[in-house]
Amino acid sequence: MTEPLLQLKNVVVKVNRHTPEELQILNHLNLTINQGDFITVLGSNGAGKSTLFNAIGGDLAIDGGQIKLRGQEISRESVEKRTRFLSRVFQDPKLGTAPRMTVAENLLLAEKRGQHRGLLPRQLKRQLPRYRELTAAMHNGLDERLNTATGNLSGGQRQALSFLMATLERPELLLLDEHTAALDPKTSDALMTLTNQRVQEEKLTCLMITHHLEDALTYGNRLIVLHHGQVTYDVSGAEKQALTTERLYEFFKEIE
Question: In terms of pTM, does the model score above 0.85?
Answer without folding.
Answer: yes
